[in-house]
Inverse folding.
């Protein structure tokens, strides 16, 4: 009776949350960030083996030998990204062969991502074999649409044929993620040239991206080169993901999916890169159609003000979390490590904040492709992700994801089973969740609800194993011969859990089984207990015709694996 009316109303809302000791992101009760960070959190050693957030590494000249690729895997790489804005099929094929050799040597389910060139605009090549040109503030630079022209500090080629008709004097052209700013002075459509003024000193390399803020670019989302790359490299070489550049609407996703299905690549997952305003405006439709999202902050920061990119990032990640679609945060995460052995403090904060936002994976570009400190960059990324995750209250996060989802729609059966599995794991204090999955969909749904324990995915599909290990948060994978003998598989996995030190004898773990029958599916959740004597019961004990092929079991491995 001594509280003002507004305080009484607040306390009445707060009471049920205090009783349950659970505050949801969707509640009306305000929360203060950092409540689970203590002095001990800062002082304790980094728990590398508990990492849940995945790491995407771009493969390039700095790291494409077998021994270097093995280093990346040891450091924690989950996905190898092949950037098809550069190189040809022959060159990429040789690197892919070395990657798969390294993965076999390290016994790792490393996934392969084909990142399309897309309808982007790029600068051209340089004369006399030069690798870079230096531009001086105040000088004039001519852009020509003759892409065969070999450029210098006075004239550069541009891949967009309609450039002179698209821009006007006074407009800006941004090059190399905005590191070079040009102002349009004159446009000569007949000659196919645009004269610009250089607004800042800059040193740029060949084939850098170019952005035209405020200009509607007349280019198809899926170019002839993209189609050739997807069909004649991606499908032929059985890649795991297609990262589609500059996706602008849901119909772009459907076109790519049809292209894959028509050519036998229906198992390949589509990652839509959101990197322009049109894609951001159509984000919800794109999200519904795609398999995963990439927050491509480089070009997006050219299309919208850079001070708004973090807002777009948080918006896209949150919506992807609610939809249960994996999301990758990319571009300039540890940019300074292209040339320096240590990152800036702001870069580490950027990685950590992406983890706090809810990203499933973070990506390195030039840091691994072109820098001498490629392994250091992965190790810093891994450590930063682990530190951010160490201060997350996973039980509250589960409730937040569930509540946020229920405010949008009723859970379908498969999603309800996944949610219940995570809740059961929390209730019984499980040490791990084992998911038996043919397509990976059950694993994706379990990962959506963010259990604070490892998720072991058992699947007969090598592709599903790589995809699960690649982008599903907290998942690692075993390939098995079949899912028919559930009991035998669970027993084998129990031994893996015990040997890895994840659990001891008597500790509970949750098993989620899903199998399709006709048009529907049957699912079940079981609570099992670790039995240390399973493999010690005499000759032939513990053997079955289901052989789990162990992945990621090296003691020094820092990836998301049991071993």
């Amino acid at each position: 009776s001594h509280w003002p009316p507004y305080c009484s109303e607040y306390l009445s809302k707060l009471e049920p949350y205090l009783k349950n000791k659970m505050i949801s992101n969707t509640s009306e009760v305000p929360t203060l960030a950092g409540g689970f960070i203590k002095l001990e959190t800062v002082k304790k050693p980094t728990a590398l083996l508990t990492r849940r957030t995945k790491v995407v590494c771009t493969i390039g000249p700095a790291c494409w030998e077998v021994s270097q690729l093995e280093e990346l895997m040891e450091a924690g790489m989950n996905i190898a990204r092949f950037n098809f804005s550069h190189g040809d099929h022959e060159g990429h094929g040789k690197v892919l062969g070395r990657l798969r050799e390294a993965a076999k040597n390290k016994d790792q389910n490393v996934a392969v991502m084909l990142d399309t060139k897309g309808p982007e605009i790029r600068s051209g090549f340089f004369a006399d074999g030069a690798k870079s040109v230096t531009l001086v503030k105040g000088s004039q630079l001519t852009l020509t649409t003759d892409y065969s022209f070999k450029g210098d500090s006075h004239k550069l080629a541009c891949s967009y044929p309609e450039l002179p008709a698209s821009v006007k004097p006074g407009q800006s052209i941004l090059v190399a993620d905005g590191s070079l700013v040009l102002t349009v002075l004159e446009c000569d459509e007949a000659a196919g040239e645009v004269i610009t003024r250089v607004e800042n000193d800059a040193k740029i390399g060949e084939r850098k991206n170019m952005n035209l803020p405020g200009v509607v670019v007349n280019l198809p989302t899926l170019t002839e080169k993209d189609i050739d790359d997807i069909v004649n490299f991606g499908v032929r070489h059985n890649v795991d993901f297609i990262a589609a550049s500059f996706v602008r609407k849901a119909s772009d996703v459907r076109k790519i999916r049809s292209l894959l299905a028509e050519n036998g690549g229906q198992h390949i997952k589509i990652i839509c890169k959101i990197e322009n305003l049109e894609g951001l405006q159509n984000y919800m439709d794109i999200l519904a159609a795609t398999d995963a999202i990439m927050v491509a902050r480089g070009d997006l920061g050219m299309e919208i003000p850079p001070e708004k990119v973090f807002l777009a990032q948080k918006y896209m990640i949150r919506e992807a979390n609610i939809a249960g679609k994996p999301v990758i945060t990319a571009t300039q995460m540890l940019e300074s490590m292209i040339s320096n052995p240590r990152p800036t403090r702001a870069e580490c904060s950027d990685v950590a904040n992406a983890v706090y936002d809810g990203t499933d994976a973070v990506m390195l570009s030039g840091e691994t492709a072109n820098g001498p400190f490629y392994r250091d960059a992965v190790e810093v990324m891994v450590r930063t992700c682990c530190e951010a995750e160490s201060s997350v209250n996973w039980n509250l996060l589960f409730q937040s994801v569930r509540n946020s989802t229920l405010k949008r729609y009723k859970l379908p059966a498969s999603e309800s089973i996944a949610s219940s599995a995570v809740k059961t794991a929390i209730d019984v204090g499980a040490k791990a969740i084992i998911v038996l999955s043919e397509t990976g969909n059950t694993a994706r749904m379990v990962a959506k609800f963010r259990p604070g324990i490892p998720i072991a995915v058992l699947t007969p599909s090598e592709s599903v194993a790589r995809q699960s290990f690649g982008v599903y948060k907290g998942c690692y994978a075993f390939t098995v011969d079949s899912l028919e003998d559930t009991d035998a598989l669970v027993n084998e996995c129990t031994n893996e859990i015990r040997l890895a030190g994840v659990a001891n004898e008597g500790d509970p773990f949750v098993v989620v089984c899903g199998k399709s029958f006709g048009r529907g599916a049957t699912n079940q959740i079981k609570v099992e207990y670790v039995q240390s004597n399973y493999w010690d019961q005499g000759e032939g004990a513990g053997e079955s015709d289901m052989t789990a092929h162990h992945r990621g079991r090296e003691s020094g491995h820092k990836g998301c694996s049991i071993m």
Summary: Residues 78 and 470 are 5 Å apart (CA to CA). The longest strand covers residues 508-517. The first helix runs from residue 5 to 20.
